[in-house]
């Protein structure tokens, strides 16, 4: 979440940047500043009362020594009255601070200066394009037909045992899925990311820490009895490893990667864009997460983008990178780059990765800090990215690599699959 200091330093700029995300912050920012003024005034009154108490406490002892017992008792009564006032002030302070926090949790992160204005995906900027478009015949099959033809994925079985959006991978389909996971993890390891195997459920504090709560509770599966949430991405448990932590400078940067299943309700999703593997309620993904000093985070963001680009190039998929406009960004992100691959049989681009810098927004929620050389603590910057999400990668590989003889497996995956072609 935003810090009070960010808002106080330049409230007009905060309102201006929030407007890039389509958020009108005028009234909210004014309310926060008014509440902060109340909080500071109450704190000043409380401090004044505390100083007065110290003086009175000292005088009681002197009065008692002088034998002025009645006067001492009068001062004691005054002390008791001031303590009651302090208790009321403390309660008011707590209410004000809680109200400020509750409001701050509803305000999105500020987009950085590189974020273009715009309201929808149509306003996103294509940053870079690479790879070769496959030349497929007009009768090329979409991945859901290929999955059925080669017995790779059974969508109907998934509906039977769970519901739509929970496919069952079979035979070479399951092996290809596992090969992709291992390939992504191995490549992350080569790039210096320490692998973590996190839980698939998290508590409320973890959801608040990374910004899924209170913004996205309707998109997460909730385990009622235990007040736990199924993770929408490994970003949540991995980033929360550093909640309430003060890091030493020599511990930074932190680079973690994790494979996990991901669970998303995707409420309201329907139509051709959700067919097959295009949009699922459960899917696999390898995530990369970084904790950085603020001055290094944008260089780290470029490294992460290069890493994801390298994966797509090794898979031989046509790709492009989008710099998201303000209206298409997530609640928590300061800047996001989406990677999309071209699905030749569907003749459309499919998002396979988002790489984001959150600056201090998540770190402030998490209380993830580092101690500088001056011994003062400062908020870290957090970043994460999909490297990569599997369903649409699988869809593009199946469609783009289909031949009359079968589906050709990319060379980088063959040592994991044990086969060169699916026939």
Radius of gyration: 28 Å
User: What integer is the average pLDDT?
Assistant: 95
N-to-C terminal Cα separation, in Å? 51 Å
Structural class: alpha+beta
Q: What does the largest sheet look like?
A: 8 strands, mixed
What is the oligomeric state here? single chain
Global shape: elongated
What is the number of helices?
Answer: 13
Which regions are unreliable across 5 or more consecutive residues at pLDDT < 50?
A: none
Number of strands: 19
Q: Specify the helix fraction band.
A: 40-55%
Strand content: 15-25%
Q: Could you give the order of strands across the largest sheet?
A: 1-11-12-13-16-10-9-4
Describe this structure in words.
This protein has 423 residues and is α+β, with helices and mostly antiparallel strands. It has helices spanning 4-9, 11-20, 26-65, 69-104, 143-149, 155-161, 171-190, 204-210, 235-239, 297-315, 361-366, 390-400, 414-417; strands spanning 125-130, 153-154, 168-169, 194-195, 201-203, 222-223, 228-230, 245-247, 254-263, 282-292, 319-323, 335-343, 348-357, 368-371, 377-379, 381-389, 402-403, 406-408, 421-422.
Concise account of the structure shown:
By secondary structure, the protein is α+β, with helices and mostly antiparallel strands.
Question: Which keywords apply here?
Answer:
423 residues, alpha+beta, eight-stranded mixed sheet, three-stranded antiparallel sheet
């Amino acid at each position: 979440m935003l810090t009070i200091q960010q808002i106080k330093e330049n409230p007009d700029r905060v309102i201006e940047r929030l407007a890039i995300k389509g958020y009108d912050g005028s009234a909210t920012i004014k309310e926060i500043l008014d509440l902060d003024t109340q909080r500071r005034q109450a704190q000043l009154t409380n401090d004044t009362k505390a100083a007065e108490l110290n003086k009175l406490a000292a005088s009681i002892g002197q009065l008692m020594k002088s034998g002025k017992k009645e006067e001492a008792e009068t001062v004691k009564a005054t002390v008791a009255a001031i303590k009651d006032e302090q208790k009321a002030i403390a309660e008011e302070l707590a209410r004000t601070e809680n109200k400020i926090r509750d409001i701050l949790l509803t305000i999105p992160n500020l987009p950085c200066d590189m974020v273009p204005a715009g309201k929808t995906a149509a306003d996103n900027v294509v940053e870079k394009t690479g790879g070769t478009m496959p030349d497929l015949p007009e009768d090329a099959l979409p991945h859901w037909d290929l999955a059925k033809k080669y017995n790779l994925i059974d969508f109907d079985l998934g509906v039977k045992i769970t519901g739509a959006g929970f496919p069952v991978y079979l035979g070479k389909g399951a092996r290809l899925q596992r090969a992709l996971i291992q390939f992504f993890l191995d490549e992350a390891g080569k790039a210096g990311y320490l692998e973590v195997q996190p839980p698939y459920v998290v508590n409320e504090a973890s959801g608040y820490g990374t910004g899924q709560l209170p913004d996205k509770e309707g998109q997460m599966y909730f385990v009622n009895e235990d007040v736990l949430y199924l993770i929408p991405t490994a970003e949540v448990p991995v980033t929360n490893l550093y909640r309430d932590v003060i890091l030493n400078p020599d511990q930074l940067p932190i680079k973690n990667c994790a494979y996990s299943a991901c669970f998303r309700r995707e409420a309201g999703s329907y139509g051709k864009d959700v067919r097959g593997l295009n949009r699922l309620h459960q899917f696999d993904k390898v995530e990369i997460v970084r904790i950085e000093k603020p001055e290094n985070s944008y260089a780290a963001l470029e490294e992460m983008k290069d890493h994801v680009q390298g994966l797509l190039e090794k898979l031989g998929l046509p790709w492009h990178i989008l710099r998201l406009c303000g209206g298409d960004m997530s609640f928590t992100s300061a800047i996001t780059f989406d990677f999309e691959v071209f699905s030749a049989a569907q003749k459309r681009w499919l998002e396979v990765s988002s790489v984001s810098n959150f600056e201090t927004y998540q770190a402030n929620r998490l209380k993830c800090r580092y101690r500088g050389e001056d011994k003062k603590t400062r908020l870290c910057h957090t970043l994460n990215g999909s490297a990569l999400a599997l369903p649409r990668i699988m869809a593009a590989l199946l469609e783009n690599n289909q031949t009359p003889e079968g589906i050709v497996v990319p060379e980088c995956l063959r040592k994991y699959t044990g086969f060169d072609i699916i026939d």
